[in-house]
Amino acid sequence: MILQILFLIFPIYISGEFRQSFFETSNRSEGDKIILTAHGMGMDDANRVVIPVTNGHIPPLPCVTSNAGTHPHGSTFTKNNFHYTCKNGTAEVVACLADDGSVIQLGRTFVRSGMKHFCSIQGDTVSYKQESMCYENGMHYNVGDSFRNGSFKLTCRESGIYVEGCYMQNSFNDLLMSGESRIENGKRHECEIIGPGKVRYVVKMLGCNHEGQQYSTGQMWTHQHVRYQCKNDGTLLVLGCIDEGLFIELGRDLLMEGMVHRCYQVNTTVFYHKFACERSSLAECVSQSMHRRARRYAKRVVA
């Protein structure tokens, strides 16, 4: 008895996932037959398919696939994200399938629900992939795309839309990054981060507001013996204390004609203190004043 074995490999898409092996035998007692197994399987595989050959005629062959069953010639079937058709033993990809069942034709892209689906062909290989997209004001954007929405520069990222910064007022190109501020033309421009993923663009006229009054940059004024000046950034600068034309720098004490003048700060509050003292030195006057205050405080606590 003579046994002849012919090993045939049929081409297929998807990197040979459904490539098949065919074994043809010639045996006088059993007759001719073809044994089909999935790619990588031997002739004794339990899922093999045996096809008799009559008078040398080979019928259309089914597709024997690994983990996807056996499919007759001309039928279609689906596995993972691919749709196949069986052509005489060769399973060919005819389309890609999204997770929601949407069909993407070969070589095409498809956008739905913020996802971009690709069904690409390279040689004999079909690949499917999906990428996140961003949707803003009726437009879809790919990951990495930057675009403008009002005063903000936005970028599409894998995690969603990210605010890169703020465009300055009446400008097309000048950009403040998130958290940055800039002073121009008497105005402060702020691209303020107010929370995770939240940015606010604010334009403020330079100047200071103190006790309900507005002061311009550089302007000086006195309130309850304390001398202030408005800084460029809108904050207050305490210059010192003043009383009847006498100026005392902040943090300084002065003894003049039996009167002590003190200008000092406790935490964020500035105090001006004036009192008579007959001591010979400023240090003794200040020490005496502090002891008096301590005694008064102790009496209030006891009471």
Automatic annotation (TrEMBL):
Domain Abnormal cell migration protein 18-like fibronectin type I as annotated: residue spans: 63-126, 133-194, 207-269
Top-level lineage group: Eukaryota
Keyword annotations from UniProtKB, A to Z: Signal
Signal sequence range: 1-16
One Pfam family linked to the record: Fn1_2
Residue ranges that the Swiss-Prot or TrEMBL entry lists as coiled coil: none
Protein name: Abnormal cell migration protein 18-like fibronectin type I domain-containing protein
Organism: Caenorhabditis briggsae
